[in-house]
Amino acid sequence: MSFKSPLTLQELVENSLLRKKTVAISNLDNIPSFFFPSLFRNACRKEKISIVKAMVQVWPFSCLPLGAMIKRNDSYRRILEIILFGLDSVLCQKVPHRRCRLQVLDLRIMPLRMWDEWSVFKAPDWSKNQAAVGHSETEVKPHVKVAIDLVLKNRPLKSLESFVVEWVAQREGLCLCCKKLEIWSLATYYHKNVLKIMDLNSIQHLDLYNMNDLTCLLNISPYLGHMRYLQSLLLSNLSRWACHTPVEKQQVVTQFTSQFVKLKHLKSLILENVFFLEDHLDQLFWCLKTPLETLSVTDCSQTQTRPTWLNSHAQAS
């Protein structure tokens, strides 16, 4: 015969608090910090809306990794709305609650087991820049950063992502952070409202796909130059532009490659089928001011047998 393990003292306390929301909310100042993750998870699971909203306002850690806790379904959307509206109260306070330490609302998808590691409740290193910088180079010091990884294509964002972006855009004291960003074709123009509110300093990994028109590179170039902490860049399937003159091509290549001067933290560069750069790789690599740790060049139609740029990057893999 098997017996169910008795509840721990913490579980008994949590169950009692979840049954009595008034008692729970009035005692949030006194609940030990190490109770918060488990209590918060259970409050979300049981949809204790008032308790969840109140806990956000006194969250004692610098990061709330919500994306690791709940799968992206209808219940996630409901809990997310509750949390965001709870943050509204935090943003409206001239003097934040003495216990609230929230700096980053992390909506990136992570395994649920991450909530068992205390490190996940610390603000990520990449989010600790003192100021957020957008395309306009205007620096702001947001109260809370909302972190999410995005894939921008020539179509609207998914419902949940669109909701988050719109919510951030409508409020002061917030900025949208994106450690990993993927952009396809003309999506830069299609989603310029997203890029306008995004903290470009937060982007560390950028993937560009199918930039098969001159306009694509012209649109992305200004943003690229403002991604000052970019570490990894992938360019894939950037075809030849047969309909443009050599002069036009040179102008676009120059505008694009000149942005690399500003990428002082770039460590990895992967070029796959980037035909528009054929015979212009020297120009790109002369703009790099720091050595690369990883370099991969595939099908870029370089006509030189021993390109000069390879001399300075011969140790790259």
Q: What does the model show?
A:
This protein has helices at residues 9-19, 21-26, 36-45, 49-57, 74-92, 159-169, 187-190, 192-197, 214-225, 246-257, 281-286, 309-312, and strands spanning 63-64, 104-106, 132-133, 139-140, 144-147, 150-152, 174-177, 180-184, 198-199, 205-209, 232-238, 268-274, 294-298. By secondary structure, the protein is α/β, with parallel strands linked by helices. It has a domain at 8-123. α4 (49-57) crosses α5 (74-92) and α9 runs parallel beside α10. The protein starts with 8 loop residues before the first helix and ends in a 5-residue tail after the last helix. Keywords: Leucine-rich repeat, Repeat. This is PRAME family member 12. InterPro entries: LRR_dom_sf, LRRC14/PRAME.
